[in-house]
Specification:
It is a single chain. By secondary structure, the chain is an alpha+beta fold. Helices cover about 45% and strands about 15% of the residues. The protein has six helices and three strands; from the N terminus they run ααααααβββ. It has helices spanning about 5-15, 20-30, 35-40, 50-60, 65-70, 75-90, and strands at about 110-115, 120-130, 135. It has a three-stranded antiparallel sheet, with helices on one face. A hairpin with a 5-residue loop joins strand 1 (about 110-115) and strand 2 (about 120-130).
Length: about 140
């Protein structure tokens, strides 16, 4: 059996040991209360670096300790590569919205990077990053 705490339970337990409410932690970490509520309810499994750092400072913990509790979702490489290619094609077709992350099903933030080669030919590169997890297409 795995005795490793979840991110939600670790944040909640550490906050309570410090005598803080969720509102108190949000204030101390300079974060929205909704973020703390989502983390402690288990809805947030990945944290942005800035959120992780603010929480670590407010809870007197190391950022790497919090990162170690974040859930890692892994897909087989074939599935991930197929999904990435499909997303690239959608972006190049101009479908920059309503794309979802193949790892966590959150919204992808997409754009097309335009560059020119040495002969002034336009080259389009699809780019995407997940709004929740570390997934990205460079």
């Amino acid at each position: 059996m795995n005795n490793k705490p979840t991110l939600a339970s670790f944040i909640s337990t550490t906050r309570e040991k410090m005598g803080l409410t969720q509102q108190g932690l949000a204030f101390k970490a300079n974060l929205d209360l909704a973020i703390i509520e989502n983390i402690e309810s288990g809805q947030e499994l990945f944290l942005a670096t800035s959120v992780r750092q603010k929480l670590a400072k407010a809870l007197n913990q190391e950022s790497k300790k919090i990162k170690s509790l974040e859930k890692e979702q892994k897909l087989p490489n074939e599935i991930l590569l197929d999904a990435m290619e499909e997303i690239r094609l959608k972006i190049l077709e101009g479908k920059l919205t309503a794309n979802t992350c193949p790892v966590c099903d959150s919204e992808l933030i997409c754009r097309i990077s335009k560059m020119y080669d040495l002969e002034d030919n336009l080259i389009k590169h699809p780019k995407a990053r997940c709004s929740k997890c570390p997934f990205q297409i460079k």
